[in-house]
Amino acid sequence: QVQLVESGGGLVQAGGSLSLSCAASGRTFSSYAMGWFRQAPGKEREFVAGIRWIGGSTYYADSVKGRFTISRDNAKNTVYLQMNSLKPEDTAVYYCAADTNRSGFDYWGQGTQVTVSS
């Protein structure tokens, strides 16, 4: 069983920055691929960023490429999402997710609200 707890959401003006954290339980965190997703009101959940378990390579949705950075600290069982140059369209609930068995994201956090005002 894996538990994921996000933190760091809040209200920020357009052009500002926020950093999200996701603390994970589990002794084999370093073997999980991790990701961030978001869901805006009235829209489906969408992929934002991911980081692989080996090598730490990262990948991003086109809408956030160059503005967001995902990283992980395996010693702290934590994955981060640094969000810069935020836009009102980035407003959403952001979810952390873990892929523990290489077959898709199978554990999810409860989400944290990010609101970007114009």
Write the layout of secondary structure elements.
Layout: E1 4-7, E2 10-13, E3 18-24, E4 33-39, E5 46-51, E6 58-60, E7 68-73, E8 78-83, E9 92-99, E10 107-108, E11 112-117
Parallel strand pairs: 2-11
Antiparallel strand pairs: 1-3, 3-8, 4-5, 4-9, 5-6, 7-8, 9-10, 9-11
Structure described in brief:
By secondary structure, the protein is mostly beta strands. The chain has no helices and 11 strands.
CA-based gyration radius = 13 Å
Quantity of strands, as a count: 11
Arithmetic mean of pLDDT = 94
Unreliable runs: none
Q: How many helix segments?
A: 0
User: Percent range for helical residues?
Assistant: under 10%
Q: What is the N-to-C succession of helices and strands? A: EEEEEEEEEEE
Helix and strand composition category: mainly beta
Shape: globular
What is the straight-line distance between the termini? 40 Å
- Main sheet record: 7 strands, mixed
> β content, as a range?
over 45%
